Amino acid sequence: MTNITAFAALLPHLCQMEIIGYIAAAIIGVSLGLLGAGGSILTVPVLVYLFKTDAVIATSYSLFIVGTTSLVGAGRNYFHRQVNTRIALLFGSSSMLTVFSIRKFVIPAIPSHLFTIGRIDFSKQTVTLLLFAMLMLIVSFTMIRNKTYKQDEIQKPASFFRLTLLGLAIGIITGFLGAGGGFILIPALVLLLKLPMKEAVGTSLLIIALNSLVGFTGDIGHININWPFLLTVTAIAVTGIFAGAKLSSAAPAHLLKKGFGWFVLIMGVYILVKELYIN
Q: So where are the chain's domains?
């Protein structure tokens, strides 16, 4: 009876916060299934604002959720022969090393308090969320613009040096913020490596999966991981990716991408306002 009473007292809180969070986790997977990218940008805000997870820990959880979900999506694309594993491994080698190094050595070395400007205390968590909000604004503009990439836009093949720099950039984004970087990967794979769009999406998912999961291993030993919670959210997101894949044939991708871009823009602005003015 005591357990039933305790659960009944907890139920209203679950309905207001956690259930919304689990629904949002499904939406993350659906967006990845529909668009092949973009959904991971919502993972950290969902963990921070709906599940009340510390921002730095949320970036770690995001690596696992995004990595696992993207790996499932990449597996589905591989089954349809839409993944170039050779390019994924070559392109991802520099980014994987960068992500692991940042999560293993750089993140733990950053102090909790960084600096203060006026009344605003810029802690490690606040700076993480502000940087993430700026990333959301960039991603939203690329999605709203909804540019169609064509292989003939760049005539010369990309050099190894240029690909390595792109890999480092993606590794830095993924390492510090827990985001996949698909908004950079897909145009790079199409324009620089001349991959067809569907193959670029599948290859991008594999690179994101490798980067994220390798990065997550760098966090092991530095943070306490709530495995039941993490696996639950991940399982819901994975389920969502299959639902998104089913919907992709029935929904106009360009409208979905633009609409999702506006939603990401609103969320990015909300985070900036909340962290700078409301807190």
A: 20-278
